[in-house]
Amino acid sequence: MAAFLHSSARVVMMAFMALMLAVVSARPGAMRTLPRSIPVPSEDPFYQPPAGFESKAPGAILRQRNVSTAFLGFIEDPVTAYQLLYRTTAINGSAIATVTTIFVPSFPKTDRFVSFHTAYDSSATICNPSYNYRLGAEQADIISSAEQLILQMYLQLGYITVSPDYEGPEAAFGAGHLAGMGVLDSMRAVSNFKTLGLSSVEPMIVGLGYSGGAIATGWAASLHPTYAPELDIKGWIQGGTPANLTGTLSFSDDTPFSGFMLPAIVGMSMPSAYGAKLTPILNRILTDKGRKILDTARTTCGVEELLTYSDLSVLSTDFQTLGDRMFYEPTIRSVMSKNMLGVNKTETPTAPVFVYHATQDEVIPYSNASLMVDSWCHNGASVKFTSFANGGHATTEMIALPDVIDFVKAAFAGTTASGCTKNTELDNLLNPLALGVDLEPILVNLIQVLAHLGKRDSNVEQNLEVLTDVVTE
């Protein structure tokens, strides 16, 4: 399996590079000489907040700059782009600072923006989207690079699109409240960024994310009513949601996807997350092997960890001394219980939510997402819940794109339905023309990339056959 994954990753990267060249080849000025390598976040002064920033309000802009963005670090994305360093909040309520990247299309709708939460799933700051998006960045995160294709769809529709480093300055992956506040404070910062020329002091916003990005989306939706109620959020979209962190980690242990557990363990034990509580426990229970593996996770990105640690069992005594009782340790159990969406009534979204999930998702359990939806509906939220009966984790992100785009448009128009609805989609074939002629070329390229990532999903070959027929007609 490990050999297959390594081979698949190489194919994906080669295909993605070719597809990026195809996507931008028709854009004037899309190619230019690569600048010298830019500094990584840990060495870039822009990421360091100025003295006294702690006294600023959450969402305050601390620094700003124009940036050049690119696919894979060297194929320029010819849009106007900015980055903001802004003040946000750690788990214990203290002030921290992180960065958001703003993409502005040629003819933007100035009364709204989309907040796009990419699944960078990492506990290393070199994987931050704000770094990987930039021209000249040494690419470390394939997932963010692939999802940058999805981001182009919103730009094509005329939406200013924002992508925050919602894990904060320490890449605290998995810490739901921190990610949610990071998203909401990014929205505050962008709303107050006068350079954009937004036509409203309270612009309309739709927030969305898939998989790891759904952690940030789900928690931002949950915290919006109490943490940032002034934001005019029209809707939320989250797919493949890790609604229960314990359930997700247990589900992926000793599977081809067990590498995703490592950045979550490291991220949750960062000082800005739950380090004060978890670090002493981890120091006591980790074996030498476990320490060495987690040290590696502090410097690498999600895909590399996925490839390197396929079929690893974190719940083995080879990794830590508690074995399969690890999540029952009182402190760990207490922390993990705080990272379950839908538990507290006060953390119920007030803006409409579109939730979608594959019933056969092999990475994130469907049952946890379904339970979250039931809880939110019981507490009065308006939720559209779509279950995809075919396909798996990777292909569901692409299969759902027409529904996602429709919900974004409806949310901005104020025409989403109130109350809760559930439906099941049986067809896992995607017609790229469903999004319209302008978006069809981008979607075709995205499907080909994600098809490699989702080879274990059912009927992927059918999607590729359908696409071939559409493209050649």
From TrEMBL:
One of its GO terms (biological process) is monocarboxylic acid biosynthetic process. InterPro entries: AB_hydrolase_fold, Lipase_secreted. The keyword Signal applies. One of its GO terms (molecular function) is triacylglycerol lipase activity. Keywords: Hydrolase, Signal. Residues 1-26 form the signal peptide. This is Uncharacterized protein.
